[in-house]
Amino acid sequence: MRCTHWRRVPLALAQETRQKAPDGCLDRTLQCQLSAHEGDEHYGLLAELATHDTALWLRWRADYVNLVVLRDCPFTGSEPDSQGCSLFAGHPEHHTWQDNPEEVPCAS
Ligand SMILES: [Zn+2]
Ligand SMILES: [Zn+2]
Question: How many domains does the chain have?
Fold first, then answer.
C-alpha cells in the first residue's frame, strides 16, 4: 500500500526545482512515494538530477516543507528485468518493486 498523503509544491520550491532540473516536467502536486509508513514525514519525487544517481525530493510534514537532494536507492531487486527501486537510499519501509505486486497496466 502506498502512502496516501499529497502535498502541493510551494511556488518558491517549484521555481528552485526548475533551476536545478530545467529539463524535467514538474508536478505541482506530489504524492508521497513511500509505502504506507509510520511517522509524519513524507517524500515526493520532484526531479531526477543530472548528477549521477541523485534526485530532488520534496520532504514535508504537517507544518514544514523543503527540498532535499538524495541518492537513489541502490537496490535493484532480484529479477533480471527489474527496474529497481525508485526511492532514495535509506528510505523507510519497502522498496518500490516489493510494493507493486499488481502493476497497473499502461492505458495505451
Ligand atoms: Zn508518506
Ligand atoms: Zn529501495
Answer: 1
